[in-house]
Amino acid sequence: MEVRAHVEEFDRLLNTLLPTVVRDAATSEGGRLYRAVMSRVETPLLRQALELSAGNQLKAARLLGINRNTLRKRLRLLGLLPATRTNGHEVKTA
């Protein structure tokens, strides 16, 4: 399947499923509809960007058209950053 066909399929799926996701989130997220829906899209987008850039955050940020610090902040907020080590002690980044 060519890229255009994939994009059209994505648009079709989004238009078909988004109303249901929005309705469900609107009743369960208590005023956080935007954040709830966007995190469902943002998480796989960031994972894919990191995969395409072989885990290099600077390359992933450039691919996404955002600052590396913004990418790190989003990864932290979404729980996608692994724990880091400081002085031999594990520090949680999420």
Protein traits:
94 residues; single chain; mainly alpha; two-stranded antiparallel ribbon
Q: Would you write up a description of this structure?
A:
This protein is mainly alpha-helical. It has a single domain, classed as Arc Repressor Mutant, subunit A (Orthogonal Bundle), CATH 1.10.10.60. It has helices spanning 3-28, 33-52, 57-64, 68-77; strands spanning 84-86, 89-91. It has a two-stranded antiparallel sheet with strand order 1-2. α2 packs across α3 and α3 (57-64) packs across α4. The longest helix has 26 residues, at 3-28. The radius of gyration is 16 Å and the shape is flat. The mean pLDDT is 87.
Short description:
The protein is mainly alpha-helical and 94 residues long. The chain is 68% helix and 6% strand. The chain has helices at 3-28, 33-52, 57-64, 68-77; strands spanning 84-86, 89-91.
Run of helices and strands: HHHHEE
Low-confidence region ranges: none
Sketch the major β-sheet.
2 strands, antiparallel
* Total discrete domains: 1
The side-by-side strand order for the widest beta sheet comes to 1-2
CA-based shape: flat
Q: So how many helices?
A: 4
Structural class: mainly alpha
- Amount of beta strand: 5-15%
Gyration radius over CA: 16 Å
Mean pLDDT: 87
| Helical proportion, percent range | 55-70%
CATH superfamily: Homeodomain-like
The N- and C-terminal alpha carbons lie at a distance of 38 Å
Total number of beta strands: 2
| CATH hierarchy class name | Mainly Alpha
CATH topology-level name: Arc Repressor Mutant, subunit A
Proper CATH architecture:
Orthogonal Bundle
Oligomer: single chain
